[in-house]
TrEMBL record:
PROSITE patterns: ABC_TRANSPORTER_1, ABC_TRANSPORTER_2. Coiled coil: none annotated. Residues 8-242 form the ABC transporter domain. Keywords: ATP-binding, Nucleotide-binding, Transport. It comes from Desulfocurvibacter africanus subsp. africanus str. Walvis Bay. This is Fe(3+)-transporting ATPase. The lineage of its organism: Bacteria, Pseudomonadati, Thermodesulfobacteriota, Desulfovibrionia, Desulfovibrionales. Pfam families: ABC_tran. Belongs to the ABC transporter superfamily. InterPro entries: AAA+_ATPase, ABC_ATPase_HisP-typ, ABC_transporter-like_ATP-bd, ABC_transporter-like_CS, MetN_ABC_transporter-like, P-loop_NTPase. CDD domains: ABC_HisP_GlnQ.
Length: 246
């Protein structure tokens, strides 16, 4: 692992929803090419943190710099910025009235003015990469959950993002489909993509993560390698959480 400059730099971020503090002075650097896995109980602020990185949530204090740009600044072109950040959610969020291929070509054609032919060629390449090329002309409802999530990943990649954010991408899937989605993410990880992944899949964390972050009540409680978490977690709250999910 080279000591590259951080491509994501989060400093003392706080976020309130009314009285509730969802993020408490969260600081985190992610280097280029790094794979960071975020774990923690429901309600600990994982999604809020991911969403703050592409300003789907505005933070109340602190700073978030992505690829050299302060995304909290009113001057930043957030739509342009978001093109660098692919996001994959628990619910696949495909456009139901578009075919798989159209799901992949729409944003590149509309937002980047890529000619149709070129967008389609790239889309087919990505569909092949996620093992679903033969479904290019079908509608999302015809696909299994695992297939839909692989399409969602390909759709995010179609914009050529520098960073991929995953928010519990396998949590809504039937168990037999989790593996195929994780496999696609592992291949992506090997390609050198910078990835921040919220997941409870500890096998994935062990295999892929450079660093695991444990959050609880809006705070980062503990950070370490996957080995650290499996062999020697430090904090009681971490131990309790791991004992519940492993
Ligand atoms: P996690 O992803 O770890 O389950 P979240 O980031 O979704 O946690 O939520 C952190 C806390 O913020 C939770 O208590 C949740 O109820 C609250 N929260 C999240 N989004 C909103 C919202 N839009 N309005 C009010 N409270 C919210
Ligand atoms: Mg969440």
């Amino acid at each position: 692992m080279t000591k590259a400059e951080p491509i994501i730099s989060i400093r003392d971020v706080r976020k309130f929803f009314g009285q509730l503090q969802a993020l408490r002075n969260v600081s985190l650097d992610v280097r280029k090419g790094e794979k960071v896995v975020i774990i923690g109980p429901s309600g600990s602020g994982k999604s809020t943190l991911l969403r703050a990185i592409n300003r789907l949530e505005e933070v109340d204090a602190g700073q978030i710099v992505v690829d050299g740009q302060n995304i909290c600044s009113p001057e930043v072109d957030i739509n342009l910025m978001r093109q660098e950040l692919g996001m994959v959610f628990q619910s696949f969020n495909l456009f139901p009235h578009k075919t798989v291929l159209e799901n992949l070509t729409m944003a590149p054609m509309k937002l980047k003015n890529i000619p149709r032919e070129q967008a389609e060629a790239k889309a087919m390449e990505l569909l092949e990469r996620v093992g679903i090329k033969e479904k290019a002309s079908v509608y999302p409802r015809k696909l299994s959950g695992g297939q839909q999530q692989r399409v969602a990943i390909a759709r995010a990649l179609a914009m050529n993002p520098k960073i991929m954010l995953f928010d519990e991408p396998t949590s809504a899937l039937d168990p037999e489909m989790i593996g195929e989605v994780l496999d696609v993410m592992k291949v992506l990880a090997r390609s050198g993509m910078t990835m921040v992944v919220v997941t409870h899949e500890m096998g994935f964390a062990r295999e892929v993560a450079d660093r695991v972050i444990f959050m609880d009540h809006g705070e980062i409680i503990e950070t370490g390698t996957p080995e650290h978490f499996f062999v020697n977690p430090e904090h009681e709250r971490t131990k309790l959480f791991l004992s519940q999910i492993l």
